[in-house]
Amino acid sequence: MRFSFYSLRTGIVANLAFLIISAMLLINVVMVKFAERDLIHNKIERGRLLLRMLEKYVGYALTENQIDLTDFGSSHSLERQFAQFSEGSGFSEALMISREGTQFFSMGSWSEGKKEALAISREALATKKVSLDFYGSAWGVIWLAHKRLNVAAPIFFDGRLIAAATISASLDPVYQTLRESEKVILVYIFLNTIVLVLVGIYLLSRIVVKPIHTLLRITEEFKEGEPFPQLADESRNEIGHLFRSLNMMLKRLEENKKELKSHIASLEKANEEIRKAQDEIIRSEKLASVGRLATGVAHEIGNPIGIILGYLELLKKGGLTQEEENDFLNRIESEITRINDIIRQLLDFSRLTSDERRETSVHKLISDLVDLLKPQPMMANIKIKPVFEAARDTVWADPNQLKQVFLNIIINAADAIGVEGASDADDRPKELSIKTSAAKDSIELRFADTGSGIPEEDLDHIFDPFYTTKEPGKGTGMGLSVCYRIVEGMGGTIHAESTLGKGTTFIVSIPLYEKENK
């Protein structure tokens, strides 16, 4: 019979042995306690009998020998008689006190406990009853127990209380007797445990383990399509029920598998039809997207084209130095390059591709953008006020994408300020402030204009693709949606606050660049 450490049989043996040993040890503790109680009770009864004999002897001596009670203190006959009475009882010390409480007889070593003996003697005088006292500590059988026993009783002569006597005995012999018996009991416990565990293993193996092993072997050897074998001695207990349930489950699984194959075949056919329909939908959606993106591209490239036209207009007027002409031409080339980037970005709106990110200074990017826009006709009457308060401004981003975000916000602000009636009703200046500040591990930019503001019902939709409040032909709603997608891709946030008739503030938060966490 092999025992695997993790087998069911090993678990049964371990638990069965533990339960049997625990039960026997508990029974042994109870038996020891009862045996200890009975032996001590027997010792007490011996003490009472010894005191009774001592009382009879004292009465006899007082009657026959005509001596006083106090003469017993110097009499060796009482000591010899007590030694004869107590032989084999275990009581080796004795003392007697008079009715007045004065000791007049003592024998034995009384190395300890004499004070307690006098106290219990006086208690017997007072109560006229037998008194018991346990004192001291000694190791018993299983736990600490009392070391000695004192038994005191009043002594009567002719119906009168004349004295009290106390005898003392050590309880070590009681504990020694129990310890000797305990050795034999432990041997029997060990032998009984072995026998019961072996019998339990045999019975449990026959009733539980063997049928389970048979089930395991059948399930491991079972092959699809084969009939499930029957147990040779199929019982009516829980194991038999388990076997029958397993058999019924396998039959249901076989039936379900056939139905599943049929369903899979029909689903594959339906999926093929759905796939064809999806391809048609995707093809139609692509055609619709081309039309929407064409309108968006026209809007997005309109901003840099306006800048290019402005510089071309300045070039046409003439009167420029060669250095200024070269600078304008370089700026025009830069804007044309940006138009190309805008087209790429808008085409990638629905599927952002990997961009070329690097360390980018936000302050420098805004300064360059402000310098670029100041000469433009749309910004002629608008004052741009950059206020850079952030101590750190380096972010990890694609400069072209970040520039597109800022450009869209600034141009939208310029459009809002240029709306008829904006900033004129209360003679407010036409201003756009760009303020940066530190916010934990991010840089926060606030673009605040003095334009017409955005209605509250429109504020929640300004970042939706193709949503616009501008007149037809002046916007497609792609600008802010592109800004939202770019800022979100950098791990930042963008939102707007607006009061109708007072202006709008766009708040952009971008994580600062950390070399170890870029």
Helix percent reads 40-55%
- Structural class determined from secondary elements: alpha+beta
**Termini Cα gap:** 64 Å
Query: Uncertain runs with pLDDT below 50, 5 residues or more?
Result: 281-290, 348-354
| Discrete helix count | 10
Name the average pLDDT. 78
Question: What oligomeric state do these chains adopt?
Answer: single chain
Helix/strand layout:
Layout: H1 8-64, H2 76-85, E1 91-98, E2 103-107, H3 114-127, E3 131-139, E4 144-157, E5 160-170, H4 172-221, H5 238-317, H6 322-347, E6 358-361, H7 362-373, E7 383-388, E8 394-397, H8 399-417, E9 431-439, E10 442-449, H9 456-459, H10 479-489, E11 493-499, E12 503-511
Helix pairs in contact: 1-2, 1-4, 5-6, 8-10
Compose a concise summary of this entry.
Helix content is 55%, strand content 18%.
Could you explain the architecture of this structure?
- The chain is of the alpha+beta class and 518 residues long.
- It has 10 helices and 12 strands.
- The protein folds into 3 domains: 8-194, 2-Layer Sandwich (Beta-Lactamase); 251-347, Helix Hairpins (Orthogonal Bundle), CATH 1.10.287; 355-517, Histidine kinase-like ATPase, C-terminal domain (Heat Shock Protein 90).
- Helices cover 55% and strands 18% of the residues.
- The strands form 3 sheets. Strands 2-1-5-4-3 form a 5-stranded antiparallel beta sheet, sandwiched between helices. Strands 7-9-10-12-11 form a 5-stranded mixed beta sheet.
- Helix 1 runs antiparallel to helix 2, helix 1 runs antiparallel to helix 4 (172-221) and helix 8 (399-417) runs antiparallel to helix 10 (479-489).
- The chain is elongated.
- 22% of the residues are buried.
